[in-house]
Amino acid sequence: MNKNLLFAVGALVLLILPGIGFAAGSAQQELATATTHAQMAADAANAATAVMHFHHVINCLVGPKSKLFDADVGNPCKDMGNGALNDVPRKSATHAKLLHALTIAEQALHAKNITATQQYSAEISKVLKSINLGE
Questions:
Q1: Phi, psi at 111, each rounded to 5°
Q2: How many domains does the chain divide into?
Q3: How confident is the prediction for the chain on average, in pLDDT?
């Protein structure tokens, strides 16, 4: 009887582990893409283009099932995962940093000029670059 229980637990672990690995890989891709779009916002020629990139950052962080997701601006993280916030453990330091980056990106959507967008993008980039998913 114990052998059967051990076999069942082992089988369950084998089923769960690939999903955990996928989530971590997804979060890494989503984080890299969000960081790229934060930098693209910094390099934008005007505030409207920068704001579009802030939407991309948000979309990569929250995923397509979130009410914050804006499908109208596109999804550069399509097929990468469920949004970085959903692909890392909720009670982790990484999740807290991602939430912080999200808060800044949401504020950045209301930037009125290119100087403000550059400041926001620098803040977002700093937070996102401080995240190490390999830990």
A1: -60, 140
A2: 1
A3: 84
